[in-house]
Amino acid sequence: YLLLKPPPPKICGTRRGPPITAPRIRLRDGRYMAYKEQGVPKDLAKHKVIFVHPFSGSRHSLLQISQEVLEGLSVYMVAFDRAGYGESDPFPERSVKSEALDIQELADQLQLGQKFYVVGLSMGGYPCWACLKHIPHRLAGVAMMAPVVNYWWPGASKEISGEAFSSRPLGDKITLRIAHYAPWLMHTWSKQTFLPSFLNGIGKEKFMNKMDLEITAARKNAGIPHQETAIQQGTSESLHRDLAVGFGKWDFFLANAGVPVHVFQGDEDNLVPVSIQRHVAEKLPWINYHELPGVGHLLDFVPGLNDKVLTTLLAS
């Protein structure tokens, strides 16, 4: 029992938790959510954009958009710590729907207006799908960059999903199966070091393309700011809960979005197989699919791409 049970989270602002350093809002259920802003002042902005961070990221993962684009297009952007990450309170009842409702409440409390844009990166893609399902009337448009695809998504081809799943390393396949079928095992499984997986980070360079390797080396040399603070409250309510929701049982497959949706995907992405991303784009023909040759998974570090994603989204 003690091996299976994760330690309680170290909630920010409590005696045993990290300090509060970010602006925060209080949500409908009493939880606190931290956020970070960039761009022009929201009262002057023509476009309001909410950014959804990836797995092991935080509000500090906010896309680096050139000042020229932000000012030229009059853009206000805000990123937030998803539940359990950074300085946002954990939420054990977290679900696909709650991700969308948290985004909606952030927009309401920051007074972003009736319509806003959402941009998600990697694991931040499934909250974007959640918004398209649960709050489509609030969206002006959505862009996803290398969004992680749920291999158990209803409506997707079992054959193609199975082939894409089979292409993953053994450690990743076990991690994903635990996330889907037995999330209560995740804490114990995360301690293992004999099999490389994206969860323990062992041997991850073996599965990167040339561009991702170059980006990773450059980031190591420069230092990666805020990496530890993303999971400072503990991994059980951040990383592990994220996997359980993102690869859990979903009850929907969208028929029509009703708003512009763009998906950007590298054709050498070894974390999100391009085959399953192509399949989703074929099943949902209203998606504007942008495949990037020679590009891996780390899209937010591809020179000029962040600007391109934002300008493409706002132009649509």
TrEMBL record:
InterPro entries: AB_hydrolase_1, AB_hydrolase_fold
Domain of life: Eukaryota
Residues in the signal sequence: none
Domain AB hydrolase-1: from-to ranges: 49-299
Pfam families linked: Abhydrolase_6
PANTHER family, sorted: ALPHA_BETA-HYDROLASES SUPERFAMILY PROTEIN (PTHR45763:SF51), HYDROLASE, ALPHA/BETA FOLD FAMILY PROTEIN, EXPRESSED-RELATED (PTHR45763)
Protein name: AB hydrolase-1 domain-containing protein
